[in-house]
UniProtKB/TrEMBL annotation:
PROSITE patterns assigned: HTH_ARAC_FAMILY_2
Presence of the UniProt keyword ATP-binding in the record: no
GO MF term set: DNA-binding transcription factor activity; sequence-specific DNA binding
Keywords on record: Transcription, Transcription regulation
CDD domains: GATase1_AraC_1
Name of the molecule in the record: Helix-turn-helix domain-containing protein
SUPFAM superfamilies: Class I glutamine amidotransferase-like, Homeodomain-like
Residue ranges constituting the HTH araC/xylS-type domain according to the UniProt record: 217-315
Pfam families per record: DJ-1_PfpI, HTH_18
Organism field: Nonomuraea diastatica
Entry keyword annotation includes Mitochondrion: no
InterPro entries membership: Class_I_gatase-like, DJ-1/PfpI, Homeodomain-like_sf, HTH_AraC, INH-QAR
Amino acid sequence: MVVPEEIGVAFWDLYEVSIPATVFGTPQPDLANPWYDLRMCRIRAHGPAGAPGFALRTRYGLDDIVGADTVIVASVPEQVVEDGEPVPEELVTALCRAYDAGARMVSLCTGAFALAEAGLLDGRRATAHWMHTAALAERYPNVQVDDSVLYVDDGDVLTSAGMTAGLDLCLHLVRRDLGAYVANQLARRMVVPAHRPGGQAQFIDLSVPATDDQGLASVLDWARARLDQPLSIDELARQAMVSPRTFYRRLQRATGATPLQWLLHQRLGRAQSLLEETGLSVEKIAKLSGLGTANNLRHHFLRQIGISPSDYRNAFPRQTQETSSR
């Protein structure tokens, strides 16, 4: 696994670093013996002296990833993603050498930027944290970026979304290498699901899409307050005091969605919140979100988010309990 030396492991990135260290660096002799031999290989420091974060020391360097069976890039410095700074050249060179030598290449979260910079994702489907997939797609147009999945297995190159999706991918690697029984037992020991249904689309906030058209703000707020009621393009246009055609164009320009798509996203967002925060029945949630029936809610959930409403609810502990299903 590639890790920054000295400064560079920010608190946020520490989670992605710890996942492979836990999965592959802790021997499990009763499950498989020998287990993985994990080596942390350093790259140069990033960030100003005194920057918050952790310092790592390891005796392995980038030359040691050449000849490895699997190379994992858990993250890249924040400056690479947020400020467009280049991926360290020595890292790109080492990744190319390792891949040419036959290594399986893996990225977690923003580590996909390093694999993309090395050209290892060209023409391939890949993913990253949904907050960074737009930047990844813009910066590397030859990569087929998919922001709807937890991870992508493209054979010898694998990528994952951020945070806990990295754990999903690491368990998937164990499953590939050592079989389902070992992966399932390891997941039990870590007190996590061996396999989570759906994709990262279930974690994307659909409720408030970006818009720079302030003239639409009051109309969109008005519509969000009435999602449980029938809403038509004509009615929304009347609220905006423009023609339906003009409203259609303005909304699509501001949000990238048609009015019907925007309304569906708002209603799904409302349903997501109700599933997370209440114990209301699926039928009641369908009515309150304006999706009508439980069957219609399930249809759109499966199509847009990739899992059923019940699986989505199980993924989020409820913060409030509301047992009424009236």
